[in-house]
Amino acid sequence: MTWSEVNGMERSAAGTTWAGNHAYAARALVRPASVDELADAVATAPRVRALGSRHSFTDLADSALLVSLEHLPRVFELDTEARTVTVDGGSRYGDVATRLHERGWALANLASLPHISVAGAVATGTHGSGDGNRSLAAVVTRLSLLDGAGLERTISRGDADFDGTVVGLGALGIVTRLTLEVEPTYDVRQDVWTDLPGDAVEERLDEITGSGHSVSLFTDFSSRDFAQAWVKSRADDAPTELFGARRATRQLHPDIGAVAEGVTQQGGIPGPWLDRLPHFRLEFTPSHGAELQSEYLVPRPRALEALAAMRGLRPRFAGLLRVAEVRTVAADGLWLSGAYGTDVVGIHLTWVLDEPAVYAVLPDLEAALLPLGARPHWGKCFAATAAQIAPLYPRLDDFRALRARVDPDDTFGNAWLDRVLGGRSA
Predict the structure, then answer these.
(1) Which of 163, 175, 107, 180 lies closest to 332 in space, CA to CA?
(2) H or E element: which one contains 203?
(3) How many CA atoms, within 13 angstroms, populate the side-chain half-sphere of residue 126?
(4) 80, 84, 315, 335: least surrounded by Cβ within 10 Å?
(5) How confident is the model over 10-29, as pLDDT tens digits?
(6) DSSP assigned state of 404
(7) pTM to 2 decimals?
(8) What are the pLDDT digits (tens) for 109-124?
(9) SS3 337
(10) Residue 94 burial (CB count, 10 A)
């Protein structure tokens, strides 16, 4: 059997990313119906990568062969004594959250989109928001991966390679199962405020981001003020005022003027965590769809410098930036996490769908942010080279060594990894 036959599995053209900006160069996309079929595909392909919910904006997931885990048997194993749930690599957060809530359990946090796959979000260090909330990857306690020979290995928290494996960028194998920490279900209310004064943000940023379980500030940097602040609070902990901002009287989309039909319930009405923590509802196309995204995770002590730099750069991206979201993430110890070793403030940028124009301004933006220690989100658009990224990750050489050891044939390598990490021997 040759790899191109892939044992008669369902094959199709690979298609494009979620936004449609990148067409995958893979010769085929296959959808194994079992872990054994997945193992056959991995073992016979010269290079292979897993394709999740396609919510990336680059060639991060591209390879000679792509495998989708959407047809694998769903796994949902809730251990109430250990307070964990084990799910398969193809599961989406929205689906996992629904099943957890039905059984009286919850995750500590969610990203703004419930549409994304668990394995893909974890592998790229994706996160939600909140001063006390770590990235989604930080609640992983165990994961299983298929190596280049199609053999499964399992690694648990406390094992020597665990912190280097969780945010693995797809470079260490195909993730088939993940175990996540859970807690009893809870309610959240979402209050939206408008016209938050810039002076308040500069003088009381810690108080503002600490005013709820999850807080997001929205701006286009055309003024010092912030157009919206979304405060998601547990139980009765919601603020009654927000430093001069005005309480919104209707549902709002973070991009001013956009239709708010697809956003989660606002107005301070309590509801289940899975219906409030994301910004967008699972049954709707999130955000705009036809867009590009970038994000930079800035060490918290440098956040105000970063925001000032963004305002200074506003003339460079006028007409390109739809909206920016400012949010916080707590530190973790995962080697390639954007919050490795430090609390961070994320500056998330939603751009119009114009790749040449967006990539033309990214070098200037990064010239201002990277010297502050900002780390680009792995799954989004950035221009930084391997030489620029390397100083931002103290354990990068350790990750390269781990990758060489667990994937000696470079089965899971691709052009993106070579370009962004500088190759395994850099």
Answers:
(1) 163
(2) helix 198-209
(3) 24
(4) 315
(5) 566 788 888 888 889 888 89
(6) H
(7) 0.95
(8) 999 988 899 999 999 9
(9) coil
(10) 18
